[in-house]
Write a structure and sequence with these properties.
Helix content: 55-70%
Oligomer: single chain
Number of strands: 2
Number of helices: 4
Strand order of the largest sheet: 1-2
Order of helices and strands: EEHHHH
Mean pLDDT: 91
Strand content: under 5%
Largest sheet: 2 strands, antiparallel
């Protein structure tokens, strides 16, 4: 099933999800380093990295919802997509809590309790990412119907397919 939101012949949602995924994990790593070293600069970087992850998550979610609305109702893929989205919302809420608790602190320092919250968020994010992979790899969501090893470039759809 071809994705609804596309740019230059490719689905946009998979292009956008790398940002919140990477930024949330990177923010968590900086927060752990701040907790271990006591150097609040790492906490500040973690805070702003998570900020970027939250912004990226909203953009990815908008494209994801539009694509999900195109998945046929009554299919297993529709249910998997719903769980994928719900787990991503939970992830965003957990990181939003970590972010908002630190918002009024000038140093944006993290605490042990927030690290536990972020570990939980990373676990939920991992499950959501696995479900996203399930949608593409098992259900073919976001994949062109004519995809194959010798398919022409998505920029030049009319290019003849090479035969062997």
């Amino acid at each position: 099933m071809r994705a609804r939101v596309r740019a230059a012949g490719h689905a946009v949602h998979p292009m956008l999800i790398v940002f919140p995924l990477g930024l949330f994990i990177t923010g968590f790593v900086f927060d752990v380093v701040q907790l271990l070293t006591g150097n609040v600069t790492f906490g500040q970087v973690g805070f702003w990295t998570i900020t970027g992850g939250l912004i990226g998550a909203v953009l990815a979610a908008l494209c994801g919802v539009i694509d999900w609305l195109g998945v046929p109702t009554g299919t297993r893929a529709r249910g998997v997509g719903l769980w994928h989205g719900l787990l991503n919302v939970i992830t965003v809420v957990l990181f939003l809590i970590s972010w908002s608790v630190r918002l009024d602190r000038p140093d944006h320092a993290v605490t042990g309790g927030l690290i536990v919250l972020e570990v939980l968020a990373i676990g939920v994010l991992t499950a959501a990412a696995w479900l996203g992979g399930e949608l593409v790899e098992r259900h073919g969501i976001g994949v062109d119907a004519d995809a194959h090893p010798d398919a022409p470039s998505s920029l030049t759809r009319d290019t003849p397919v090479r035969t062997r």
